[in-house]
Amino acid sequence: MAERVVLAYSGGLDTSVGIGWLKDATGKEVVALAIDVGQGGENMDDIRQRALDCGAVESLVVDAKEEFANDYLMPALKANAMYQKTYPLVSALSRPLISKHLARVAKELGASSVAHGCTGKGNDQVRFEAAIAALAPDLTSIAPVRDLALTRDKAILYAEEHNLPIRQSAKNPYSIDKNVWGRAVETGFLEDPWNAPIEDLYEYTQDPTIPREADEVTITFVAGIPTAIDGVSYTPLGIVEQLNTLAGKHGVGRIDVVEDRLIGIKSREVYEAPAAVALITAHEALEALTLERDLARYKRGVEAEWSNLVYDGLWFSGLKRSLDVFIDDTQKYVSGDIRLKLQGGRATVTGQKSAQSLYDFDLATYDTGDTFDQSLSKGFIEIWSLPSRISARRDLAGS
């Protein structure tokens, strides 16, 4: 049997052409592996058949939607993961999952290499290859676009010459990546940050400027994981899918950001992530109710580091694993209900309750019945500010 290479297959132009291109350049037979992470659109059976029609010796499809939601999106939610405080890691979260299955299939087939369709300019090349290095260090990673000079114009010409069954997606001015957590759009006229996004860019969200009656939803969490909407239980995947519809209807989760890529350049990105933004908003509100002050403050720094690690392709790193342990421990009491108002592009918290709440009405109220002994505050402030007082006297004496 000829040596094989396992290709992460999307069904698009680059990976479809990449099947023949890889075989011509390396002499290896190509096994196409498509992973369903809730991207929607084309039927996965059609994508599987397209790979075969483009020359793959074998074409595999893995339904990983539940795995993606349970093992990747829920840890991200517990971490309130937002790169640059803005981007909920839509693409970054799917790459380690795809890499895991690439490595698994390569081992099962005895292949010595895997391949992906990334360019040499983006983050995803790093994410795929760093994950493969951590999971299967003996595997070699090949990127036809980057390593084998498969440019866009060559890909189009190759597809035409070989009569490959590929849609004319090459005419689409945008580069789009999507999964159940959100959708990323770049290139085309968006490469000029002065150009405002147009409505045609969006698929998961409706125009938030169109007046609509607000919707209210109540999300139930157990130990940091959403388990129900308005009292109806769902799996994590079901929760995300439901909120994509409910929050997307109101244009929640539209993001326009100039992003600092790992490779050192800035890139203008447009995202829509209705469920991600709604869930993180609700989860943060519940943490504010249930986490003690110092733990909440420290966790914010951990969240930023966790987000940076995942963005940078280090999902399987030792530091990321250790931070996961810390984050999981913080979620012990993050259970309760958060009510959100969805309207005009925003998810606004309008109610919060938890049996584990640290909010004490009798301590917080300013009305009669207040149990907080205000007489203790004067001495506390004297002691708290004592170092500042002492250093101020020194500063004044030396001036």
Automatic annotation (TrEMBL):
PROSITE patterns associated with the record: ARGININOSUCCIN_SYN_1, ARGININOSUCCIN_SYN_2
Binding residue positions for L-aspartate: 119, 123-124
Enzyme class: ligase
Gene Ontology BP term (one): argininosuccinate metabolic process
One Gene Ontology molecular-function label: ATP binding
A Pfam family the protein falls into: Arginosuc_syn_C
EC number per UniProt: 6.3.4.5
Record localization: Cytoplasm
Cellular component GO terms held in the UniProt record: cytoplasm
Keyword Nucleotide-binding part of the UniProt annotation: yes
UniProt-listed NCBIfam families: argG, PRK00509.1
Record-linked HAMAP family: Arg_succ_synth_type1
Subunit structure: Homotetramer.
Family per record: Belongs to the argininosuccinate synthase family. Type 1 subfamily.
UniProt protein name: Argininosuccinate synthase
Biological source species: Marisediminicola antarctica
